[in-house]
Each structure stands twice: as C-alpha cells, then as structure tokens.
Fold this protein.
Amino acid sequence: ANAAFTRAAAQAQAQENINSEGAAHEQIKETTTTGLSRVSQSYGAPILIAPHSHERAATVVSRRTWEGGGSSHAGNSSAWRRRQNGKEGRDNPIVRNNYAVPAMMGGWDDDGQTRIGKHGLTGFGEVIGMADTGVDWDNCFFADAANSNAGANHRKIPFYRLIRNRGGQASRGDAVNGHGTHVAGAIAGHVLGAGRDEGDVDMLRKYDGIAPMAKLSIDDVSNDQSANLVFPDSLSEGLWPFSYDNGARVHSNSWGDDSPEYTIDAREADEFTYDHDDFLIIVAAGNTGPNPGTMGSPATAKNIIAVGASENHPFSYPVGDTVVVQIDQTGTAGFNGQEFEAFSAAFGALLQRGAPFVAVKIVGMVPALGCAAPSNSAELRGNVALIQRGECFFKEKVLHAQEAGATAVIVTNIPGQDGEDRSALVMADSYDIPQSITIPSMCVGSTVGGVLWELILENVDVLVTFPVVFLSSSPSLDNLAYFSSQGPTGDQRFKPDIIAPGESITSAKSDGDLRSFQCSTDAFADSYALTTMDGTSMATPLVAGAAAIVRQYFREGRLMNGIREGLVKSPFLASAALMKAVILHSGKELSLYQKDGSYSKKGILPTFSQGYGAMNLWRVLWIDDNDDDGEDDSNRAASTAQSAAATHTTTRAATHSA
C-alpha cells in the first residue's frame, strides 16, 4: 500500500492481473461448488452467500459451524469446549463484554471513555455501509422516537434498501436473533437516554458500537425462504454504489464463501475500489480455520481489508463450571465428592486456574437471603458464603458477603411453584449497586441448594472445591481465534489483513418485530436488547467502524495532534489506500494456537495466519492527551500517521496490484 505507483502504472498492472486470471474467472462462473461463489451457470445470477457466524447455541459445549458452512471446523478442540450458560444460550446476561472496543481504541480512560473516543473520534459525520440480513431498527441501539421507520431523517439508519430475490419473498427488518442487527450494533449502535432508567442506559451503553455517532446505509439482503443471502447480479454495479451514493466511504461485509481463490466477487470488489478510490470495503475472512488456505471470497480481494478474529477478554465469556462438594460424615456418602453444575456471576472476580478454592468450608449466611449485613460475619470470614436467592439483587447479596470477609459466594436457586427443580443460572449485574465486587460468586440449582442448606442446618461441615473455569488456557485478546480463517490465498498472497476481537461479542439483538421496541436489560425478558455471537462476522464491523474513525481523524484535520483545537495541518478526505495503510500499521502480533493446546508467537508480521496482527488505533493515530489531570497520557503515533498521510496522494490506486 506504500508503493509510489502512478495511477497509470497501477491501472496497467491491474489490467494485466485481470487478464492473466481471466481463465480462472470463466471457470468459476461455470462451476457450482459447495461454497457457492455463484449459484447458477450464468454470470448474471443472484449470489447466495451465507454469513460467517459462530452463534452461541443453547446447551452445547463445542462451537458450531457458521451457518451454511456444511461442517464444523472448530468443534473438536478442547480449547473450544467452553460450557455455555444453560437453556438461555446466547442471551444470558453476560454484562462484562465491554472489552472489544477499548482493545481497538487505546483502552479505557479514567472517565469511562475510550482513550480515542473521549476526543470526539466517534464516527461523527461518517456514513458506514453494510450488507447483511437487515436490521431490527426499533431496538434501542437504533430506535428514533421521532421516526418509527428507517429512512430519511432517521437518527441512525437514514438509508435502507431491501434487495428482493427473483420470485422469492423478503421483508424489511431482521429475523429473531438476526445476524444483521448484531453487526449493525457493533458498528454504530448507540442508546439514547431520554426517558429511560439511568442505570439501564449506563449498562446498555457499554455495548454501543465502536463508532456510535456514525450513521448507517443498509442493504437488506435477507431471504425469507432460506438462510442464504440475495445480492444484485453485479456487486460492483448493484451493491456498493447504493451506499457510496449515500455518502458512505467504508462498507462492512460479514459474508462470503469458502473459496480461497480470486473469484468474480473478489474481482468486483477490486474493480469498484479502483474506480472509487476513496471507498474502503471491509470483508470477513471466514470461520474455517485454523488450517492454512482457508480464506473465503471476497476476502481474497486485493484492495479490501480482510478481517480475521481474535479471542476476547476472559470476562467477556459466559462461564459455566462445576462445583465439587465434599462432606465429612459417612452418613451422607452418597453426596460426598459429587460434582454439580454451577454458573459464575456476570460480575466480580473470575475464577482462574490454580485459584485457592480447594476444600474450603461453606457457611450459611444469616440472614439466609443475604439482603442485609450478616450477623455471623466472624464465621463467614475466610470461608464460602451460602446464600438463598430472593428479595434483593444478586450483587447486593454478594456485596454483603464480601464486606463480611467471605472469599466466595454460592447462591442457591429456589424451587418452582410446584416444587420442581430450577437449574443454575447466570446472576446478572446491577448498576444500581456501584460498589466493586472483588470475590467470585456462583449459582447452583434448587435441588443441590436444598441439600446444602439441609446439611448446614444439621451442623455438618461441608467443603467445596471450585475447579478450573476453562478446560484449556484462558482466552485472551492476545490470541488468534481458533476458527479464524487463514491464508494464503490461492495465488499465495497474505490474507487476512488485520485482526479484531471476534469471540463472545455482545451487541444489539433482533426480536423479529419492528414494533416491539426491545430495550430491556433483563436477559430473560422477551424485550432483552442484547445478544452474543462469535465469528469473523463480529470482528468485521468493529474494523469497519474503526476505519470510519480513521477517516474522521483526517477529515477533521487532526493529523498533527489528534484534536481539533490549534490545528497545524489542513483537513483532507482520506483515500481507501490511506485508511488501509493506517489500519495495517496499527497491528500487533497475536499468539497462535498450537496442537498441544498452547499459544506461541513467531515474532514477525505479516503472516498468513493473522496478516498484520491485532488492530489498535492508539498505535497509529497521534492523540495529544494532556488533560486536566496533570498527567501526559499522549501516545506517540505521530510518525506513522504522518508518513502514511504524506504519501496518500500517490498510492490511491496502487493497492490494486499489491
């Protein structure tokens, strides 16, 4: 991207590339494959391409294949066998996933904003295009009280187009737990606070998109008759021009096929970017890793950015675990040493490998509901508190135990109305209680809880052991996701280009109804606003939103100091090549999963597995962060941004042959 080609030279090289690959294109047009680059013998047929998404499935342990992929590529590794949170599956209250965005934006500042976003770099003034299954725009991440439908004057989605299948049916909006709503939320979702509970707004805003002040141009390519997507006959003539004409200069595409070759779709992406050299197309790499050569088209194109996925912060994952109970009396031998299912809370400390909870005594809290300071603090100190569910927030119960000196908490669920067993659940956070929880807590089912309380009331010593949360190493933002598709492409080019978090990403949820206005923070309510998904589909919108922020940075003249005051350099509109160059320069090497279950680094970038590594704009956009706290928090990325900008006028078309 930094080669100083002239436009004429680049165009000549590009034509040579296209001509030399013509035979391969003809073969692709005439062939129907499992990956389906085209679904007909005709060049003009609609493209049906399934979205990349490892969505969380209820009660399963291993990862599922991405929808339409045919077979699972990641489900057999022990590193992936992380227990899901029971029957509620992906909609459990995992309120600790506000890690992906700050990982790409320099981390959190002391005031609760990202270190880049606090300076107004939020996508303001940008339009971002997207082609996906549609958007449930009455979710509060998009909802506009003054405009009940997407379209002109809508605060978040002023442009919405439905692409209909020939002879088929399609409707505006999105399906239940729809892919497109999640993707759109990750790009630019933003919850408004007017008329809503302040605690709920604060909780939901933790899942705002990476560019929360940007607007969206949506191509709804859903098909009501199948899970496949419906596209125009030509991507370069029928898809991307819609968003381009609406002012979008970045476009997110979380879909593709399994072909690592330079297909028709890839060529059309390159052609459109070449003809519109200020338009950057972002494409999901695919979820068919970890083997080499598993990239999918159109992520094999040259002018686009192909996005792979990393793991996420450990606190972002739904944690299921087992509790081992030991009892010191022979009369209860049938219960002794048994393992029982328990779920960690969505707040507080995370149980880690080697945590010192081996044969620790359980002490029943008095009062048992834990809604007031305990009267038996001396007994609780240094032990595990047992508390009943009911009457007050889970977090309040755990806080009282923590203040009494307990080292951990087990909350017992209550039976149903007819005495039926209620299984363990994930205890949700409560933003009405701002105090920090520093001890781990778990919930067990009502039957297990009843036995524990009975034993304790009989003065039987009950000991508990908390095993390791993860069966393999703990996940990390520094690890490449096991499923992330890898290069090289069929013609041996480096792909993917960049990596972003793609595991356990929480974003806006579709309930399939455009009139329901779902905005609840109750994970078990029909109106719950959030859902969690995995895949390069989830990483791609994060990069798209970040690319729009790069464009905003140059458009507002922030080049010399990152802020709008005291500007030295005149503003300008960044080319796609410049945006791409800045993003690639922001990368940092990730560790790769090894066959023995470990992770390691090679010490060199780019590589076929991760391209230029994990994206972090703080590494490239110079921000003069001298605020009122008396500390200089400025980064030192000026040289990268300036060097990229200095050559942007001579590299606008050069990437076509890169």
Residues 395 and 430 are 6 Å apart (CA to CA).
